[in-house]
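Async update (no meeting this week)

Hi team, since we skipped the sync, here's where things stand on the single-chain job. The sequence we agreed to prioritize is pasted below, unchanged from the tracker. I ran it this morning and attached the output directly underneath so nobody has to dig for it. Comments welcome in thread, and please keep replies under the output.
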Amino acid sequence: MTLLRYIHIACMLTVAAFCASAQCEVEYEGGITANFGKGEFAPYYISANRGGTLTQQYSGLLNAAAKHDLDTTKRVSYGFGAELWGGLASATDYARYDVATRKFTPNSQRPAHAWVQQLYADLKFRGLFATLGAKARHSEVASADLSSGDLIMSGNARPGAGLTLGFVNYQNIPLTKGWVQISGELGYERLSDGDWLKNHYNYYNNFLTTGYWYNYKQFHLRTRPDQPVVFTIGAQAACQFGGTQEKYEKGVLTETVKMPVNFKSFFRSIIAGKGGENKGDQDYVEGNHVGSWDVMLEYKNAKFGKIRAYHQTIWEDGSGIGLQNGFDGLWGLEWRSNEKDIISGAVIEYVDLSNQSGHIHFAADLNTESGIKGGATGDDNYYNNYTYNGYQNHGMSIGSPFVKAPIYNTDGYLRYADNLMRGVHIGVKGYFRSEIDYRIMFSYCRSWGTAELIRFKGVSAACLLLEANARPSWLKGLVLKAQFAFDRGDLLGNNTGGLVSISYQGNVNFGKK
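Output:
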C-alpha cells in the first residue's frame, strides 16, 4: 500500500471521528460540467487555474465536494473536506519511441475516469493549524478569479497529499499592538503523478523521474488590515526532492539514479544544501528549488473601493534570490469595487521571465582548470532542473499557468520547453444584474524557448475567455455557468471551445445537538 493511500485512509477515519463526536455544519456542492471544442486541448482559459481538473478537447465530468471549515473564534477547532471528480474525456496522442522499430508511434492518453481531488483533515490550536491529506492552496498574492496565476503556488495543478503546519490566517506579532501580522506554513507532500509521467514520456532521450517528494513553505508579514493602506512583504519557496531518475539515450536506459529520502534531504528541501546521489546535487544543491519574493501595497476607500499593486520576483538559485534576474517576475495592478456594478473588478498583469539571471552559466569554483576568472550564475531555467521533470503535477504547472506546461508537449518531452517568455494578461468582471455576472480574460504572450534550446524565431499565443454565471433567486445555491474561449498562435495551438456547467451548493448539520 502506497503512502498516499495511507494518508487518504487516515483522513477518512479522522473525518468520520469528527462527525460522530460533535455537531458540525457541512457545506456541500455537486455539479455537472461539459466542454467541447476544436484542437488538441481545451482552450487555455478553460483549463487554467482550476486544479488540473479539465484539460482535454472534449469531456463530461461530475464532481461532488463537502467541507467543514475551522472555527477561528475557538481555541481548539477542527475541519475537513473531500472533493471527487469523474467522467469521460477525449484522448491526446503523445509520441512514444519503439526501440524494436526505431520509430515513434502514437501513444494515446486521456485523464483517469475518476480521482480524489481533495481529501483532508484540519486541526487548530490557538493560532496554529495542522492539515493532513490533500488540500488545495490559495495564493497570498494573485486573485483566484482574475489573475493569470501565482508564480509559485497558483492552484493550477492538482494538490499533493501530506502534512502541513502553519499559522491560521494572519496572526498578530506580540508587542506590535496589531500593527504587524505574520502568516506562514511548511508542508511535505507526495505528488501522485508517477503513472502520468510514465504514460506520457517518449522513452527516447532526456530522463524520467518519479516517486519524488514536494516541500512548500511561505512566510509573509503585513500591516494592520483595518487601515486604509496595507503593506505586505514575504516569500514563497518550493522544492522537489528524492525519487528515482532514469536516463535514456536513443531509447536505451543508460543510468538509474535513486535520490535519497532521509533527514538530511528533508532538511535540505527547506534550506538548499549540497548532497544527494546525483552529480549535479553534489556540485550545486539537492533538489529542484524555486521561489519568489512577494510585495503588495493595498489602498481601500469607502467610495472608490480597493486598489492593489503587487509584484513577485521569481528565483531558482542564489543569483535570483539576490535579485540578479533583472525585471523578471509578475507585475500586477488590481481594482475592486464595493458594489455589484457593471464593472466590479479589473486586473492587468505583466509577466516577464526573459532574463533568468543571464543566459551564461559558468561557476569558476566548479571549473578549476579553466583560465577564466570570476564567474556567471545565469541560466536559471525557471521550473526546470537537471534531475526533475519540471515544476508540475499531472502535466500542469504548479506555478504560473501562463508558462506553457509539459502537458502540451505531445512529443513526450516532460520538461518546460518555453519558459523564456513575456506576456500581458487582462481580467475584468462585473454584474449585469444581481443574479447574473460575467468575466472576460485576455492575454498575449511570446516565447523564445529556453536558454538551453532557444527559438531564434519566437512563438506566440493570444487567448480569450468570455464567461457568464447565473444565480437565480428562486433556487438559492444553484449556479449556471457558460464559457467560450479560444487560443491563437503557434505556442498553444489553435484551440477553440465552450463549457457549460450546472452546480448546486448547500449545507447540512450533523452530530450531537
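Quick observations from my side:
The two ends are 38 Å apart (CA to CA).
The mean pLDDT is 90.
Reply here if anything looks off.
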